[in-house]
């Protein structure tokens, strides 16, 4: 569904299958899939500025890799006390988001769908956290965000939000999976399971 209009190639890394898609406007998208289960692990995209410079990667699913920092600690990480919002691994029938490091009781949270723009809103009564986000698949398929399809819970300082996938999204994902099987491997990509003589 997200690769339409682009040129895709894939690489089997031995751990996951990476599908890299480039579009006519210079933007690109990289998806990583588990080799055994074919689950989407990471989906990131970036576009170009008006002057042609590549922008930062935007992670739609998963989180960015950790970076090496020769100064202090070996890896650059967010402070463990700051809330971390990410779309985590989706299930077969729903999309899943997590907000880690939220130590407030469940009664503090207000999770709802804003009917004016279809975005999901997370707010706390103590005004310590606020986030608005849209579901990219629903935007692409031009479907409304239905509040009755969303559930949420809080446990172990993590807010978990799930949105049940509509039938049209399940059909689009099945088509995308079939299309992914037809993506040509990148030049020089060999099956890591194959032993050379």
What is the correct CATH architecture? Sandwich
Shape: globular
Helical residues, percent = 10-25%
- The structure class reads mainly beta
Number of helices: 2
- In the predicted model, the low-confidence regions spanning at least 5 consecutive residues are none
Largest sheet: 5 strands, antiparallel
Output the keywords.
single chain, 197 residues, mainly beta, Immunoglobulin-like, 5-stranded antiparallel β-sheet, 4-stranded antiparallel β-sheet, 11% helix, globular
Structural features, described:
The chain is mainly beta and 197 residues long. It has two helices and 14 strands; from the N terminus they run E-E-E-E-E-E-E-E-E-E-E-E-H-E-E-H. 11% of the residues lie in helices and 38% in strands. The model has no long low-confidence stretch (mean pLDDT 85). The protein has helices spanning 136-141, 167-181, and strands at residues 6-12, 16-23, 28-34, 40-46, 58-61, 67-68, 75-76, 84-87, 94-100, 109-113, 120-124, 130-133, 150-155, 158-164.
């Amino acid at each position: 569904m997200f690769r339409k209009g682009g040129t895709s190639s894939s690489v089997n890394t031995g751990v996951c299958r990476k599908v890299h898609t480039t579009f006519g406007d210079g933007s690109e998208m990289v998806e990583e899939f588990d080799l055994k289960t074919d689950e989407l692990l990471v989906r990131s995209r970036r576009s170009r500025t008006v002057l042609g410079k590549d922008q930062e990667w935007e992670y739609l699913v998963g989180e960015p890799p950790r970076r090496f920092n020769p100064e202090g600690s070996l890896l650059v990480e967010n402070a463990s006390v700051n809330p971390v919002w990410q779309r985590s691994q989706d299930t077969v029938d729903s999309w899943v988001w997590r907000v880690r490091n939220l130590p407030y009781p469940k009664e503090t949270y207000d999770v709802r769908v804003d009917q004016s723009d279809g975005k999901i809103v997370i707010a706390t009564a103590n005004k310590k956290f606020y986030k608005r986000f849209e579901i990219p698949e629903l935007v692409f398929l031009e479907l409304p965000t239905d509040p009755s399809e969303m559930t949420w819970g809080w446990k172990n300082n993590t807010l978990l939000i799930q949105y049940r996938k509509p039938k049209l999204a399940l059909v689009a994902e099945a088509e995308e999976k079939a299309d992914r099987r037809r993506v040509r491997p990148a030049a020089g990509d060999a099956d890591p399971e194959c032993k050379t003589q």
